[in-house]
Design goal:
The chain has 221 residues and is α/β, with parallel strands linked by helices. It has 8 helices and 7 strands. It starts with 15 loop residues before the first helix and ends with a strand.
């Protein structure tokens, strides 16, 4: 497999042919065997935080949007991704919700986002896929916080390489995914995430499950 240019943010790994196997390989096998954070915990994280006006950034295959419980029967859902393939794939998967899609780069200034502000914004397994930016991960939170309502919640999860328990297998696959260009989490630690969230939110909570950090953040500064 050739190594993708990092400027594509690893988007080669999210083309439609790979998304067809994403639930089995990433949501189930990798979460159980590598990162030790079961998909049931991530679904619970959605259940607790998702709202009736929701923005999902980097929705992957849409597994969690498909399986979580929204607080209202007909939520307003907006999907944002750099790659059009996940937008199309997830839109079809959750077509019952009639989602809005936006193609945009999270590492650049965002265009006007329909339906903003949102009462919930999810960044699930997104941060560890993003190439390191000069502003660090805090730059991501700086760009999304204007999209969040004052009483809303930003939440998500990410695989870190420092501050969370690791195994031989998780370290090996982290290094492999970094070489492939799928992961860019060489400098991602629990402390770094704590600092980045603290710069832009009055309140935030971190939970460590295996090599994964789940986070929630409220009250944008």
């Amino acid at each position: 497999m050739s190594t993708p240019d990092t400027t594509d943010h690893g988007q080669v790994f999210y083309h439609t042919n790979r998304l067809n196997g994403y639930d089995l390989v990433t949501v189930k096998a990798a979460n159980y065997l590598l990162w030790r954070c079961p998909p049931t915990r991530l679904t619970e994280h959605y259940d607790k935080n998702v709202s009736g006006r929701h923005l999902d950034i980097g929705p992957g295959s849409g597994y969690y949007l498909d399986h979580c419980t929204f607080p209202i029967p007909d939520p307003s859902i907006t999907l944002l991704d750099l790659n059009p393939d996940p937008l199309t794939f997830v839109s079809q998967r959750i077509s019952r919700y009639h989602p809005t899609t936006v193609q945009a780069d999270l590492l650049d200034d965002l265009p006007p986002i329909p339906n903003a502000p949102f009462d919930s914004i999810a960044l699930n397994y997104v941060l560890h896929c993003l190439p390191e930016h000069p502003s660090g991960r805090q730059g991501v939170f700086a760009r999304i916080k204007p999209l969040l309502s004052q009483g809303g919640v930003a939440f998500g999860s990410t695989v870190v390489t420092g501050g969370a328990p690791a195994t031989f297998l998780s370290n090996a696959f982290n290094a492999l995914y970094q070489r492939m260009g799928a992961f860019h989490n060489q400098n991602d630690t629990v402390d770094a995430l704590h600092s980045a969230l603290g710069q832009h939110f009055e309140d935030h909570v971190l939970e460590i499950r295996g090599s994964v950090v789940l986070f929630t953040a409220r009250r944008p500064r």
